[in-house]
Amino acid sequence: MRAGVRVMVIFGTALVGATGCRQGGAPPAAPPLAARLAPRAVPPAPPEPAPLPADGIRAIYLTGWSAGSAAKRNSLIGLVDRTTLNAMVIDVKDDGDVTYRADVPQAKESVRRMPGHMKMIRNIDDVIATLQKHGIFPIARIACFRDTPFGATHPALAVHNRHGGVWHDKKGHIWLNPYKKENWDYNVDLALDALKHGFKEIQFDYVRFPTDGRMSEMTFPDQPKDSKHEDQIAAFLKYAHDKIHAHGGWFSADVFGLTSMVDDDEGIGQKFVKVVENIDYLCPMVYPSHYAHGEYRLKNPNAEPYKLVTYSVGDAKKRLKTVKTSCKLRPWIQDFSLGAPRYGPAQVKAEIKALKDLGITEYCLWNAGNHFTEAAFEKDPNGAAIAARAKAASQPAGPGAAPPHAPGSAGASAAPLQTPPNAEGLGHASAPGGSAAQAAKAPPAASPSASGAPSDVSRPARSGGSPGLAGGANGAQSPASAPKPR
């Protein structure tokens, strides 16, 4: 017993002594009762996203030059006003060129070292304000990893060749290394800057690993052993998704149209089931001109836009139902000619009808020169659509607005997966190579399609199972009227 008491005394003495050293001999003062009972500060909830058009997004694509030219921009606004189109996808970064004076250090550095950028749109706030007056929903397109200017000024952040130098694709483009966190931050910082200027949605393009070059020569510094490209792209999308949502923006991504046909990532990191877990809208590039002859048992997919869109987007819609996600489909469709036949009102209408028959009312139209087929769109002669758009755009989202990625939605009513034009240098329609079995896949019954439709985008070539494109795909520029391959 005596030993036990002694230990207690010694322990108590040590404790008091230690306390005295800290408090000058006085016992520590307890915090006031009110302070202890006061509720802890709760971090503010992220802002609500802007309300989306009730009947879905129907967008046209604008380059930075088109958006920055008052004459061209007003002409395209007039097109939207006269029809039931209601949105514009505008380049914020394309092929590394930032189209306005973004308040992002990396972009400013690229401009200093490679002058000539950021001059396309001289006043982005005026552009967004004009779109707001017309009730046009603004979407910022950011081409992520194909970025020659940034890669040239930051070679350590680029994809390398096996000799330690910077790797170039067959067109001479430099690609940023998706395993470098600095590249994630650059693209996300641009996205947040675009939201600050009034864009309501961020759309990522070229969100993948490179294609179309000496693939065996590529190396990715900082790539962990046994890592998978598909997991790296998914992690990047999750990172961007959380940042963009925290600032009240919607988030979409462009992918190859063939991602819905295959189970893997085709070597580029775009695995369907992993991509859709981290975005609000999947935008598969479903350009008939970008599909190989024989795909879906169609002798010439470009000549049968109704069937091609029906089969491809139908696949995406089925695949989306197997994933627990609120992601929806908003395909990119073709409004350009690439090969035979030439595309006109009949072909574009056939694509839109195919989507409508699948229950999808949302889409984006790709034409690299921004020349769109007005006769293919429903008219709004009385201005009812523009009035409704302007009214909706002027109202805040409100507490009842469904947040992006609301849990519980499986995307059953969403638009099918599509590859957006101009996405990933593939004329937004090319996709990774498919197998012979996929090409021979028996398509479901469908209504007759319009034939003789010319295409403005080149069809993706299939080789070695990796996504490749022929004639203008993956960054190759087709004739001026053709959409820019992504």
Protein topology:
Elements: H1 2-23, H2 33-37, E1 58-62, H3 64-68, H4 70-82, E2 87-94, E3 97-98, H5 105-113, H6 124-133, E4 137-143, H7 148-153, E5 160-161, H8 181-196, E6 201-205, E7 218-219, H9 229-246, E8 250-256, H10 272-275, E9 281-285, H11 305-320, E10 328-329, E11 332-334, H12 345-357, E12 363-366, H13 384-393, H14 436-439, E13 462-463, E14 466-467
Parallel strand pairs: 1-2, 1-12, 2-4, 4-6, 6-8, 8-9, 9-10, 11-12
Antiparallel strand pairs: 2-3, 5-7, 13-14
Helix pairs in contact: 8-9, 11-12
Features:
14 strands; disordered C terminus; alpha/beta; globular
Report the portion of residues in β strands: 5-15%
Gyration radius over CA = 26 Å
List unreliable stretches of 5+ residues.
1-24, 397-485
Q: How far is the N terminus from the C terminus?
A: 83 Å
**What is the number of helices?**
14
